[in-house]
Amino acid sequence: MSCSLDRNGAANWGAQHQYAAMRFFDATQDYIAARCCILNGLHAGFILASQAVEKLLKAIIYLESTEKIKGHNPYELKERLKKSKDYNLDNFDLMLKKLHDHYLSRYYEDSPSVGASS
Q: What share of the chain is helix, strand, coil (3-state, %, to 5)?
């Protein structure tokens, strides 16, 4: 793969895609913090992992559609991404739902959805 952008072209592309770049950067920071917490037995790491996946999906959605999405549910973000491009992420549905449950666990009044009876 070759890149035909000169310095100005790369700067312009970066300026146009700054939203996605910032989401990727934030996702990386959350992922690193999540690993540190989880490896040291801290439950907060799963909340950070959910946020990392959320930000990653938002960045990819933006790159595919230039749409800035609100919301925190990784499963719903994956479904939204499928409308632009299918990355075959359906095998991760249970994990994405579980990550969202961890995100909701920040507050006691929010109840998990995975495994809950309706």
A: 70, 0, 30
* Structure confidence by residue, pLDDT tens digits, 98-111: 999 999 988 877 66
- Give the tokens for residue 65: 């559609």
Q: Are 28 and 60 in contact (CB under 8 A)?
A: no
Rounded to whole angstroms, the Cα distance separating 77 from 97 reads 11
Nearest to 11 by CA among 25, 21, 26: 21
Please state, in angstroms and as integers, the Cα–Cα distance from residue 112 to each residue in 31, 48, 109, following that order.
Answer: 22, 16, 10
pTM of the model: 0.84
